[in-house]
Amino acid sequence: VLPTGNIRFLPFPIDKFRPDVHFGTLRCKLSNPSRTIISPEVVVRAVLDTPFYIKNPDVVVIRGNNAILRCLVPPELVDYITVTSWVQDGSLNIYPNFQTGKWLLLPSGELHVFSVDESDGRKVWACRTLHKLTNEVMTSEGARIVVKGNQLAAAGSSAHGSHGWMDGSMRSQCSGSAPRNWDLCAQ
């Protein structure tokens, strides 16, 4: 506790973690001869500075459809890691809300690649992240967009990939959105 009454939590080794101090609810109590006031509750949650990795899996998309690339952050760090950009082929940076006719990086960190063709499949895509507490910048391993032909998926086959919004109201099991046909999930 500082002379000003503020409390400061200093970095500590993992073996010194105490749940009653580093993961709890605190209140400040201020008194003078005429009265005492108590602050609203403040939640304190320690973040352990442990090594982490950002994953960026390949996505499978049928030619002409849209690919959705995502950075996969460890669940315990989701509140502290933000995607700052996507890097194409190690040199072209794509930033949030900068839209060309080909890409859109959303504030959520998802990169949408529109109307995928074979040239998109030859590129390497990596996401760049920032740890808000440690200011550590990390770039994921490169991933690829695997472009499939225009064949329809076999009826009853299971689709692989990440969930994506098709029209704002329906969930798909495809790796990208399917603007032309609802059955365009590739394996």
From TrEMBL:
It comes from the Eukaryota. Residues 40-146 form the Ig-like domain. InterPro entries: Ig-like_dom, Ig-like_dom_sf, Ig-like_fold. Coiled coil: none annotated. This is Down syndrome cell adhesion molecule-like protein Dscam2.
